[in-house]
Design a protein that fits this description.
InterPro entries: LptG (IPR030923), LptG/LptF_permease (IPR005495). This is LPS export ABC transporter permease LptG. The chain has two domains: 224 residues, no CATH class; 87 residues, no CATH class. It is built from nine helices and six strands. Strand 4 and strand 5 form a beta hairpin. The radius of gyration is 26 Å and the shape is elongated. The chain starts with a helix and ends with a helix.
Amino acid sequence: MAKMFIVRTLAVLALLVLVLQALDLLGESGKILAYEGNGEAELWTYVSLRAPQLVARFLPFSVLLGTIITLATLNQNSEVVSMKAGGLSAHQILAPLIVASMGVALFAFIFNETIVAPSTARLSQWEKVEFGPIPAESNIRTNVWVRDGNNLINAQSVTGRGAEVVLRDITIYNRTENGLKNLLQGEEARFTGSAWLLTDVTQFDVSTGTEVKKAELVVGDSIRPDQFTLTNVSADSLSIFALHTAIGELEQAGRPTMSLKSGWWHKISGPMSSILMPLLGAIAAFGLARSGQLFLRAVIGMALGFAYFVADNFALAMGTIGAYPPILAAWAPFLLFFLIGETVLIRTEE
């Protein structure tokens, strides 16, 4: 039973990823090839970065459909009737699938941490530079905007952490209430401990229309390094340990972390949803096949599974905006549908 379940789950997952990747690539290929010099290699690079996201997102769906196909097949061949005649309860019949789904959940967690998070971060960086070349440094952030009073600062790339942050291709828009006052452009900026040292600076004065070049210029004594490194932290782009560190840094800087805490808890509860799918799809295993209700039971199982995903996404959205506590946003749908699945199974079969 476990082998049947795993094989069918992988078959469904492969089919879903293949179809959805093809459709996604059709929609994005124009943007990728629009950048001069991009070709087939860049298309395959996009596929390699996008496919792990599709696998992670649709693995629980595949577990649900694999469960229903497996149990419906066993029911159709009267094998479930034979197992019940041999004295097995409904929970004992489902035990191999639940144990196998635990292995799937463990695989999903490791896969998300080691492959999905880095590929999501890489793809996000690539999209921000409009599918152009990305600098090779690790831990890089691209196209970061920071506001300092009326002024705006844009850094095309940010590397490093803490006081070791390095900004490259910086543009500073010094504004007054009535509009732009002057424009500063620098090749590189480093934090000196109290301000930022810009090198290769070009200063353009809007009122006079004059341009002045300077080798160095000290600016931004009120701008902190964490404003660049902690801007737009994405839970999907970080591993669970890196996200925990980022949440701690944000809290020290007095920044809101409710949505990131919800994402942190969901990194655990998300893979755990695979364990829930055999329970929600179990209704397809029981009832007499010749009664003509096997298809209806399969539909009910799919409805329960998809209702869980709707509730999970809704709760995560509520946690992101701060309407739900983070732990409730991540675990409430799981516990609710676990109770629903157990209730259906006990009332109908036990």
